[in-house]
Specification:
By secondary structure, the protein is α/β, with parallel strands linked by helices. It has six helices and eleven strands. A six-stranded mixed sheet has the order 1-2-3-4-5-6, with helices on one face. A hairpin with an 8-residue loop joins strand 8 (111-117) and strand 9.
């Protein structure tokens, strides 16, 4: 069964990635409003009803803006670390929040999602590999520098979403926190 992948958006104005097969799909991040996510899904002929889970990489607004709206409207659980949930300051109802840990494989239908920690200026950031058992899709966002885990997981992927906008001069001279 083939895997379908789509970047609904990538960048500082919102991040949302779709990975799925004919039966189920997951979002990695939900940085667009529910309405905008639905619009983009329709434009790509993707079915919101196939989305069975949202995985959150970290608490920055461009990764969580639509999290609560999508979860509530579509009754989709959100996989989020307790640290990320606490730092998001978003009122995600406890019944929709499912914790995960780095290295833990989470099974959603026939999809397996593996999270691993990454470097980023967030409290507990993660990247993800989504697999159907034979094809691996990486979702590696907000990359500033690589680590051994990233290199290992990237080498195992058949395709990957890479998003990096690291600029040392901009960080040193801008209004960004350390």
């Amino acid at each position: 069964m083939p895997l379908y992948i789509a970047s609904l958006n990538s960048g500082s104005n919102g991040n949302c990635y779709y990975v799925g097969n004919e039966n189920e799909a997951v979002f990695i991040d939900a940085g667009l409003s529910c309405r905008e996510t639905e619009r983009r899904m329709r434009g790509l002929n993707l079915d919101m009803e196939k989305v069975k889970a949202i995985f959150i990489s970290h608490e920055h607004s461009d990764h969580i803006t639509g999290m609560c709206g999508i979860a509530k409207k579509w009754k989709i659980p959100v996989y989020i670390t307790p640290q990320t949930r606490a730092n998001s300051r978003v009122p995600l109802p406890p019944e929709w929040a499912l914790p995960f840990e780095a290295g833990q494989k989470i099974v959603i239908g026939t999809l397996q999602i593996l999270a691993f920690e990454k470097y980023h200026d967030a409290c507990h950031p993660h990247s993800f590999v989504v697999s159907d058992g034979s094809i691996n899709i990486g979702v590696f966002t907000d990359l500033g520098k690589t680590c051994d885990k990233l290199e290992q997981h990237l080498s195992e992927c058949h395709a990957a979403f890479l998003e990096a906008n690291y600029d040392e001069a901009m960080l040193a001279n801008g209004n960004y926190p350390y």
